[in-house]
Design brief:
There is one protein chain. By secondary structure, the chain is α+β, with helices and mostly antiparallel strands. It has one domain: 2,3-Dihydroxybiphenyl 1,2-Dioxygenase, domain 1 (Roll), CATH 3.10.180.10. Helix content is about 20%, strand content about 40%. The protein has 3 helices and 10 strands; from the N terminus they run E-E-E-H-E-E-E-H-E-H-E-E-E. Strands 3-6-5-4 form a 4-stranded mixed beta sheet, with helices on one face. The chain has a 4-stranded mixed beta sheet with strand order 7-10-9-8, covered by helices on one side. Strands 1-2 form a two-stranded antiparallel ribbon.
Amino acid sequence: MSTDSNTGTSVALSLAPMLSVRNGARAVEFYKTAFGANEGYRVEDPGGSVVSRLSIDGAEFWVSDESPEHGNFSPESLGGGSVRMILTVPDPDAVFARALAAGAREISAVEEAYGWRVGRVVDPFGHHWEIGRQLADNSVT
């Protein structure tokens, strides 16, 4: 916890990605279906653009419609993205299958590699997701 020097209020430190997409409302529904995400906050403008905070079992991320006028571009506009999401789950095979059923496309099947059971999909909005779990404690200390 940190304290806001202006208000004296305690503020929890967090870091969460914000995914820029085309058709934010549809993207939110995809993430709910594919990953079981819960929506904790949503703002929608009269034109239908969305900013939403989602959570997958406590892991938060944000989704918003792209806004090129503010320098926020979706992978569809850029022809690809520069970041991959890594979703660590107890059963990567089940989550991978659920994502495919919801409309994701397989990049690499779930397999054991480098001490992980992991596979990779691209969602309908161009974001890549590695879905896996560590097999043994091979962390760096």
